[in-house]
Amino acid sequence: MSVFDKLRSSKRKTPPVIAIYGIGGIGKTTLAGEFPDPIYLHTVGEETPVDLDVPSIEIENYDEMMDAFEHLLTQEHEFKTVIIDSLDAFEKMVWVFTCGRMGWDTIDSNDKGAPTAFGKGYLEADNDWNEYMAATRALSRAGIHVVQILHSKVKPFNDPLVDSYDRYRPKLQDRATDIIMEKSDALLFMSKRTSVKQVDKGFGKKGSKAEGMSGAERIIYADERAGFLAKNRLNMPPSIPFKKGNGFAELSKYFYTPHAPAVEEEEESA
């Protein structure tokens, strides 16, 4: 068998798996609701915006999420998009499942209920996160868009080249964030456009003032910057304006274009 027997086009043939996070009230769920024929899988406490009416299921544990995925993969249905809201609330369900599987009291304890070596519980949870992400990739191959919604947090970032600074990142444990970023086709950050202008502080002193956060222009960022994590393998531009009702139309321009394949897709073609 020649290696060229594995030659294939890099043009995407299936919908992407994406994750969206951002500041509160920015419109993450509103954007997700614009995707075609969605079903809304939400954790306890999450609700759709009042102007969004979609079929929904409340997810209470890890098994229920995986059961929902299995149903969508094996049964006939009309849905073309799965919205998961929120992934940071689902993380606690992953920990409960991992602990049950391992016989632990908490994600920070071993089989005797004693503290584990630092990070051991989260390392074990990687297996369940990877199972979850494998299921989202299966949904993608079945022709279903997957939109994962997360909240954000601000965390100091120790850049070895410059002084430390704060940045937005998904509200997940770091190992989980790494898995979501690696296995998704895009991690998108939503915010409002800001600008900084010089102001006169009197007595000949100048200062800087941020403005624009109260404005209406909302932006979807697809590439990492100093202030936030983001990435995509869909050939998206660094930023895309978000206007309600036109979000999916703008994003979908990049869904079926030549792209860098996900790791799983490369392995499957072998």
Quick summary:
This protein has 270 residues and is α/β, with parallel strands linked by helices. The chain has helices at residues 28-33, 62-74, 87-102, 120-141, 174-183, 247-251, 263-268, and strands at 17-22, 38-43, 56-59, 81-85, 145-150, 152-157, 165-170, 186-192, 195-202, 205-211, 218-221, 231-232, 239-242.
Write up this protein.
Strand 6 (152-157) and strand 7 (165-170) form a beta hairpin. The strands form 3 sheets. Strands 1, 2, 3, 4, 5, 8, 11, 12 and 13 form a 9-stranded mixed sheet that branches. This protein has a single domain, classed as 3-Layer(aba) Sandwich (Rossmann fold). It has 270 residues and is an alpha/beta fold. The chain is globular and about 45 Å long. The model is unreliable at 263-270 (pLDDT under 50). The protein contains 7 helices and 13 strands.
